Fold:
Amino acid sequence: MTLRSRLLQAGMNGTRSRKRLTRWQAEFPYHWDADDQVSRRELLRFTVMASGALFAATAGIATLSYLNPLRSAHRQAIAQATDIPAGGVHYFQYPTTEDEAILLHLPDGRFVAYSGRCTHLSCAVYHDQESGNLVCPCHEGVFDSQTGAPLAGPPQRSLPKIALHQEGTTVYAVEEVPQ
Structure:
């Protein structure tokens, strides 16, 4: 029942007294002066502007990542091939002094290198001699030493591979290639 119908009904009953309605009984309890704070049009305009700003920021980040790829390339001598026996491992820093990396001399004679950071939560990765795999002790992630692919645990992506070049007996890291 609306406020108008209540007033008309009260007038029909012969009573001239107006009952004061509580807030929850009134049809629209807000006063016009309270309606001046924010209109629907202003709220919609603000929402569209905020969405546009977020879209522009996302497009800017995507453009920057396209212009500056994640690959980092500079040649760095790692170790002498004769110093690492087959099945052996050598830990080194690449591409910066803060980034750990692992050089593996596989039993078949090949050298492979990977980033020393787990792709799950960036914990350190080490080579387990017993299993021959790369292991992350934080959440028991296991990576294949041949390919860097995850074998067990929470990691979903392969370890970033480091491209190698061998000149004579010296093994060089050439660039880190994200997988």
Remarks:
- The radius of gyration is 34 Å.
- The helical segments are 3-12, 40-67.
- The chain is about 20% helix and 30% strand.
- The chain has two domains: 3-67, 72-177.
